[in-house]
Structures are given as structure tokens and as C-alpha cells.
Amino acid sequence: MEIVRSQRRNGGSDGATSLPLYKSAPALEVRLEEFERFAIDRLTVLKAIQDGLSRGRKQEEMEKMINDLWKAKMKHQDPKETMRKDIISHHALRLVYCREEEKRKWFLSMETNLFKYRFKHESPESQRAMLNEFQLHYSLLSHAEYEILADKLNQAARSINQASKNETVFYKAPFEDVSDLVSGRRVFLQKGFAYVPRTQVVSLVCTLFRSNISKALVLSNQKWRASINEQEKDRLTPILEALGDSYLGPDYSQPKDCAEISLKEINQLASSSFPLCMRHLFSKLREDHHLKHGGRMQLGLFLKGVGLKLEDALAFWKQEFSQKVGAERFDKEYAYSIRHNYGKEGKRVDYTPYSCQKIIMSTPSTGDHHGCPYRHFSEENLRAALNKMGVSGRPMDEIMDKVRNKHFQLACTLTFEATHNASCETGINHPNQYFVESRKILQNKDQKSLL
Question: Which of 213, 274, 239 is nearest to 435 (CA)?
């Protein structure tokens, strides 16, 4: 796949069905703008899958959500254009996520879940074509054959909890081709053939798909390090890096749905409406009268986004830092970066507060206090911090369970719900979103108490 700024050429697909296997990069040209837009649209689908899985959505809810999002973000009136976007967006994100092990694991998991949903909803003809692609030469059991064996087939399926209601679609395969299923007693055997329920076929196909994509990600990483990174350092690399830390929600570079905050109320707001990552930074700043660069950026841009004016920000940071480094040194070494964050120095860029994704992927070292507490704290320290916020009992257990399963944003969402006694259906994706939603709930409670 060649990334160009010129007009694109039409390209073909790499599969016989509407569901490609992404075996190789497509032989077509893609404009940079199109490359980025396609990647963002697919990433929206993958992140929605992650959110749904981490929230324990029911299968029917997941399928409806994926179907609706795929139609909205990926489908085109022309099936060829849908296929083209599907292939390009996958390979674009493969480049984004191949470069770090943790990102590779995330991409692999989400793509496999997307593939599983799409495979299940392919036509029987398309599914058979895909089985052949994977060299799984199974034949679909005819209706007449099924009627003869129905009782035995469904009894076998129910015995391994594969069907809450009768399965009607089975595949017939030589038993030696599915030795793992045979040894695990997960299929019905008769006259040298194994009768495989569709659910088991889906599982086998997804396992093969996952294995292929996993190998492809490793190869993509090797190619990236060997040549692509150097060749594309001024053109494609900045786009890939931005996509890797991308946040797809609302813009919080300016105060949103809340008034500007003043220095007089910042302590109270930190206690009531700051997410744990910002509460921790705020507490350490008050305690040590200093934060390293990563902490200053994370907290400083957050405060900018919730409405702390530049004049108040300078006063706030100076009040703390001058206790350790002195006012003169603060003016010389630190004031510039604060004005820079507000777009008043340098290129005068209006910098955006960090999203949860960016914070989670940060790598704080010794002496740093930035990052995501749900990811970077020890269990003991995280429990202690949550206790200070008033979290205990069952909510604490649920939060820690999400942390152990690496669902850090959902852990933050559960913390929000526990401390505000209110649900947050959208989930927490940004520290400033946490603050805005918190202020809405608390202000609404204050208004009701006055009635």
C-alpha cells in the first residue's frame, strides 16, 4: 500500500467474500487525508467494541452496536468502496499498533472480536468460501442429514453447554481434521466424521484469523523498524503517532458546559470533581510544591480545560513552586511553559488537555506522579487512594476487578458512579469529561436542595 498525496487509483480486495482476511497490503494508492480518515472511522468501531466488552454488554447489545457503527462509519453504497475502505483502514491501523507490544495485543483482540461478529453474519456460501481460505474443508450438513441426526447432534451440543437452544447449523469434517475438538469431546462422531456446531466453527476460524494477524503484526513491526520509519519520518510517522494516542470524543481545549473556575474554589473542586489522576497530581503539588514536566503538562492542561484562566494559572503554579524554587526562578524557568500551553508563546497553539488514552499510555518513571492511577499504582496504593474518595465494599471490588483485567477507563467510570451515586452510560474517556459530568450532577443536587 502506497501513501500518496495525489489522486487515488481504484484497487481490488484480497478475499472472495465481503469479509477480507487482510493477508497482504492492497496494491493501490491512498491519499494521506483518506488514510487518516479511514483509520479514525475504523478506530471508532474498535474502541466501541472495547467499551462494550469491558462493560459486560450482552451479545445482542454488542451485535446491534457493532452493526449500527459499521453501517455508520464503514459502509458505502458501492460494495467495492466498502471493501476498499475496510482493507485500507485495517492496514492503516496495523501500522499504528504494530510498534508496541501492548498496542499490538489491543489491536489483535479488537480486530478478532470484530471479525467474529462479521463472520457469524456472513451468508452460508460466504462462510464456506472463508473456510476454504483457511483450508478448513468442511461441508455444510444438509437439512435431510440434520433431521436424521438432530437429537444426537443437539444432545452433544448441550452436553458441552454450546447451545441454550437447539443449534441447527452443523459442518461435517473428517475427524482427523478437528483432532482438538475430538480430544476435547466437543463434537459428535459417526463413521469417521465429526459434526461440528457452527459455534465451534466460528471459534476455529477466529483462532486462525487471530494467529495470522498476530504474525502479520510482528512482520509489520520489523518492516517499520527496518525501513518505513526512516522513509516516512516527516510525512506518515506523525500521523501514525497521533492515531496511536488518538482521542475521538469532544474537544476540551476550552471550558465546556461550566463556568470558569477561580483560585478560591479550586481546593473544593479538586475534592469533589477531579478524577483520581488529577486529584493525585493536585495533592502531590500541594505536598511537594513541585511536579516534574509530565505532571505539570497533565495537570496544567486539565486545569486550562476546566476553566482556569491564564492569570490564575500563573498565580496558582507560582504560589506552589515559589515555596521550593523561589519566585525568581519560577519566573525564569516555569512561567514560559504555562503561557505556552495557553497559546501565548511559541507557535501560539491552543493545546488540548490529555485524554484517558494518552494518560494510560504514558510511562512515568521514578519521581513522576503523572499517568493513570488505575494502571500505574500498585493495588495497595490504589485501594488507599480510592478509600480517600469514599469508595469501599462492593464498588471497590468491582473497580479492582476491572483494573486486574486492564479495563482502566471502566474502573474510572465505576469510581465516578460510586462517588456520585449516579450512572455514567457513556463511560469516562477524558479527565475533563469526568469534571464536566461531575459538576452537572452536583449542581443539579444543589438546585434540588434549594427547592
Answer: 274
> Which of 167, 145, 171 lies closest to 158, judged by CA?
167
**Cα distances (Å, whole numbers) of residue 450 to 134, 443, 446, 447:** 67, 11, 7, 5
- DSSP secondary structure string, 229-286? HHHTTTTTHHHHHHHHT---S---SS--SSPPB-GGGHHHHHHHH--HHHHHHHHHHH
Confidence of residue 55 (pLDDT cuts 50, 70, 90): confident
- Report the C-alpha gap between 420 and 388 in whole angstroms: 14
- Cβ neighbours around 104 below 10 Å, total: 19
The pTM is what? 0.65
395-434 pLDDT, tens digit each? 999 999 999 988 999 999 999 999 999 998 888 989 999 9
- Residue among 305, 317, 323, 217 at smallest CA distance from 253: 305
How far is the C-alpha of 11 from the C-alpha of 75, rounded, in Å?
A: 17
Which residue type, as a one-letter code, is found at position 377? Answer: F
Please report the DSSP string for 164-217 in residue order: SS----EEEEEGGGGHHHHHTT-SEEETTEEEEEHHHHHHHHHHHHHHHHHHHH
pLDDT in tens, 336-377: 999 999 999 888 887 889 999 889 988 899 999 999 999 999
Among candidate residues 200, 192, 185, the one with its CA nearest the CA of residue 120? 200
**Residue among 30, 46, 54, 52 nearest 93 (CA):** 46
Q: Which residue has the higher pLDDT, 248 or 285?
A: 285
Q: Which grid cell sits at 101?
A: 507490544
Whether the Cβ atoms of residue 186 and residue 174 lie closer than 8 Å to each other: no
**31 forms bridges with which residues in the sheet?**
4
Q: Which three cell numbers stand for residue 74?
A: 464503514
| Rounded Cα distance, 81 and 75, in Å | 8
- Report whether 205 contacts 134 (CB < 8 A): yes
The pLDDT of residue 163 is above 60 = no
Confidence (pLDDT) at 241: 79
- Contact (Cβ atoms closer than 8 angstroms) between residue 384 and residue 377: no
pLDDT at 164: 42
What is the phi/psi pair of residue 66, to 5°?
-65, -45
Q: Checking DSSP bridges between strand 170-174 and strand 188-190, what pairing results, if any?
A: unpaired
If DSSP codes are grouped into helix, strand and coil, which group holds residue 405?
coil
With beta carbons less than 8 A apart as the criterion, state whether 428 and 409 touch.
yes
Which residue from 114, 109, 21, 13 is spatially nearest to 62, judged by alpha carbons?
114
